[in-house]
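[audit] Reproducing an earlier prediction to check determinism. Same input, same settings, fresh worker. If the tokens differ from the archived copy the diff job will pick it up downstream; this log only records the rerun itself.
[audit] input (254 residues):
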Amino acid sequence: MDLFGFDLGALVPFILIGFAAQMVDGALGMAFGVISNTLLVGLLGMPPALASQRVHVVECFTTATSGISHLLSGNIDRKLFFRLLIPGVLGGVTGAYLLSSVDAAMIKPFVLLYLAGIGIYLLIRGLLYPPKLKEAKHVAPLGLVGGFLDAAGGGGWGPIVTSNLLIQGAEPRKVVGTVNSVEFFLTLAVSATFIAHLGIADLAGATLGLLLGGVVAAPFGAFAAKHFSPKLMLILVGIVLSLTSAYGIWSAWR
């Protein structure tokens, strides 16, 4: 069976990867890029540079779909959204401009160590202490740092911003929905030039499969975020953040 001139059977593995990665990202506010890249490179043998390129193109579309899904599910905190939006985009654009002169790969392992520690902390907190919800205070600096590291380091907006907002006590489902929604504008700002140079031809094959799977999964991820309890979300975020950060550390230092 053909889809836009491509064998649907050949697209199935990429559709499944996009679906699985977006389910986790939509429900927990992180890990689409990490999961997609890991499966594309580790299971399907795709060259890392090509996998990263395609994942970034797909994220421009999946973040838009995810943001709309979270909006319809009532998962977005409007005040938090605007407090994150401008600093996040400014940080992302700055990181993109400085990417050519700053070796962000040098600091990435240390950022991953920090995130692994945060993941363990959130896991313990979710297991042992009932979460007490309160308004996050340190938002603008967090958005600036998260946007910068996402652009300069090739990812990190979700893990950095989501985890730190949860530590501050913000409501988990609103954190996930808001962070996912702001990520669309961040990804669009950072990737605009990149997408213009790629052209429509790159939306073929693997990229199309990832895109289809991710877009289909977005509403389910938003639904899960709305119905997970705060305690369960802290535990799941802690597990995902710890595992993905540990994998990143192992990949960077092996």
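[audit] rerun output stored. Observation attached for the diff report: The radius of gyration is 17 Å.
[audit] end
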